[in-house]
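Task card 7
Instruction: Convert sequence to structure tokens.
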Amino acid sequence: QVQLVESGGGLVQPGGSLRLSCAASGFTLNYYTVGWFRQAPGKEREGVSCIGSSGSSTYYADSVKGRFTISKDNAKNTVYLQMNSLKPEETAVYYCATLRGTYCSGSKNVWASPGYWGQGTQVTVSS
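Output:
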């Protein structure tokens, strides 16, 4: 069964950190670019970060540059998103998904048609 499962969400104070995990089963992430999205209530879904199949290419939305770090462990078939200095406005459900191609970038072509999706993990940033 093909599956992506996110974990690591929770409640954190402003300025705090969380590490999200996206574990794949039923297929290998070695051949996929993986992206993280987030969607806050009443807002459109937005792409946050992605990492290419080999791990050598990464992309970050301007809003998270310098605070979030994406990484990949192909041996564990898992992608991680380390989130530091979190802000209340980053409260959202965070999803991982496979993206088009093997190279990650901010190009709309990469983000346009996600393939496999996870169920999402809630991140709440609040004091």
